[in-house]
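Take our chain:
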Amino acid sequence: MPRVNRTVVLTLLIASSSVFLLFQLYYYRTYVSKQAGPHILSRTGQLTASDVQWTVKKFLALAQRFRLPMFLADTAALTLLSQDALRQRDRQVREPHCSFLCTDRPITSFAVHANLWKYDSGFLLAVEQKGFELLQLRGEDPRLASLDNLSGEDIPLHFLFRLNGYIIQVVFLYERSGNYLWHGALRLKANRDRSFAPFKLLDFGRHSGAYDRPELVLTVLDGLDIQVPRNVSHFLSEQQHSHFLECRYRDARNFLQLYPDDTSPTAMDFHRKAKSLLHLAARTLKQLNIPFWLSSGTCLGWFRQCSIISYSRDVDIGIFIADFRWDIIAAFRDAGLSLKHKFGKVEDSLELSFVSEDVKLDIFFFYEDGDIVWNGGTQAKSGRKFKYIFPRFSLCWTELLELKVRVPCETLDYVTANYGSSWSIPVRSWDWKSSPSNVQENGVWSRAEWVELIQVY
């Protein structure tokens, strides 16, 4: 039997291994690299920690070079950071492991304060030179839209950068007149590559969003210098409830062409006072951490004409009874308002009314009852009770009178329940006991309860 030449065997093994490696490289470049999704995989099929760090580090270096005012907005990473708050004191030391940026998603999200950055095409060119693919998503600037001008200029809304299947989302936050930050919805045009990224996994873009301006701090996460919101929990809570509805300027202009706005001195004076009162109410309730929304005529004015109804003579807001606090009356009095009346009780049909500069602030408390919610009303002279029924709703942000405020997301359903299908037609003669479409008789307060439950000042 001939002796096996070890050198020949070794040479054959090396050659076959090289051919196999070349085949793997060819297959990856020809097939895998053209597919969307993560491609840098470990033996378990997951993105490796080192590659995530390398991709993010590469992007952050470019962002710092071009001075992007950027901070970490990724909900998964920030959630890990907030859960790890007890270890924050140790974050002064650079973290060699991927404890925060390596999540279950092939995405990291950042936010840019757009007003602090002058658009620089050189940044995009540099990013592409580093191997990143770019998908730019732009839209109209709502800050330039008004009843006189229905379209704004195109502005950047979202940048998606892809490197070897890993996505970095950059969402642009713009300052609005209500002293808050806003981002637009992510909408793909027909000619866009829908396989570019796992869009359903993105933190931002399902809808427009509104945020308070976060205070930022520079920290070290996974060995990288990154700015993050100082109050991580507050930012995460805002992100979950950030849905923003833009005023319907086109419909409002059509309405005002049919029913011109009242520009008399009396109407303008009410407009000024109502704006001041709404701002004061918002500040007072924010200090108490009580969420509220525009209700009744004030909600109708925003939805129908992007303003207040000049002949309404009051400001209406709603609060869920679960958010009631006993010190709310004292807080409004401290803010300079006078209590006009207090009807009902916490358990049933509570209603408060304050007055400032002869303009009334009505606060209606809403009660949840199965698949409906309702608020109560009381006639002071008779003790008769009324109930106004609405379908359940969630809350969204909007802007009215240069103020970020909440409205029911399902605004049309809310307004239609209260004012019927003819809500778009102004009605100057209004009886709160019979005119609303959703009003029902709800009994009578007993005489023995009047002293406590029907208080008029």
User: Anything to note?
Assistant: The mean pLDDT is 87. The two ends are 117 Å apart (CA to CA).
